[in-house]
Amino acid sequence: MPDCLPDNAVETEHLCKTYRGGKRHPGKEALKDVSLAIPRGSFFGLLGPNGAGKSTLINILAGLVVKTAGSARVWGHDIATEMRAARSSIGIVPQELNIDPFFTPRELLEVQAGLYGVALSKRRTDAILELVGLAEQANAYTRSLSGGMRRRLLVAKAMVHSPPVLVLDEPTAGVDVDLRRQLWVNVRELRRRGTTIVLTTHYLEEAQALCNHIAIIDRGRIVIDDSTENLLSRIDAKQMTVTVDRELAEVPPPLRPYGAELVNGRRLVFRYPPSRTPTGEILKAVESAGLAVIDVSTKEADLEQIFLQLTRHDGAPEAV
Ligand code: ADP
Ligand code: MG
User: Fold this and answer.
1) Whose CA is closest to atom 15 on ligand 1?
2) 301: which DSSP letter?
3) Which of the ligands is closest to the CA of residue 66?
4) Which one of 31, 56, 92 would you pick to mutate in the ligand 1 pocket, going by the greatest count of ligand atoms within 8 A of its CB?
5) What's the CA gap between 271 and 263, in Å, rounded?
6) In terms of domains, do 64 and 147 share one?
7) One domain for residues 126 and 24
């Protein structure tokens, strides 16, 4: 452990990964020059379409996939030169739901604690089961657990060694709404207690609701990396063009607060956040400025659209 806490829970610099071709896969450049900083204490969303490279990035951090070039640090520890420290600083909830069905949740956590060398006196098996809502199932066979419970058991397993960074790779794929909600309650509680959370998903709404920072990866490259707030303020923007009945020399003063711009003598363009300024309010203001509206057209964007815009490849010949 470094003496003081790192500013960034995870950092990558110019990280690249090319999978060598084999029998099952052709060769694949899965990460291209990925430089990312995940601030300590954040709830960080890594979004991207299938095949974008999310799991590759996560698995490199976890020590499961070997990088081709560049560097990465987890909690200040270089994954190549301080592998043990890096690995003990991160817990991964994998995308696949593979759990040994013959263990009970309690046994599974105890085995995992043993693997990580957690001393008996430091084990928190019951507290962790409680936290993920599996206290009642502590001694049940895992094969009797529902999909959502298994997912939460994987979260518990990733927490056994108390890593300061917890990564969830597509944790809600195929999980029903109630269980998702429960999972998010658990994860938020962890974050409240100081754990840095990294979530990969392609559910944009989920990321928007949970994450305070979002990066979008597409075909191995980071295409957006910003706070959710900034991203949303970019998105919470509507544009309305109003054509009026009269030639204007300037924007009438009562319309200035609405971000109006005069495009040609009769056309006013308003750029405004629809969440705070209802479109009707602007139209009323136009009328009370003594203008009659001849024509109106609006354009708007949301996270979905921005995402599609960034990750759409018209005719780009790249196999996924
Ligand atoms: P995501 O998690 O965003 O869906 P992945 O990181 O799993 O994306 O995959 C990124 C790209 O790398 C995909 O094109 C995928 O087919 C390829 N890939 C993943 N794992 C391997 C592997 N072991 N060998 C070859 N190619 C792989
Ligand atoms: Mg994946």
Assistant:
1) 51
2) -
3) 1
4) 56
5) 13
6) no
7) no
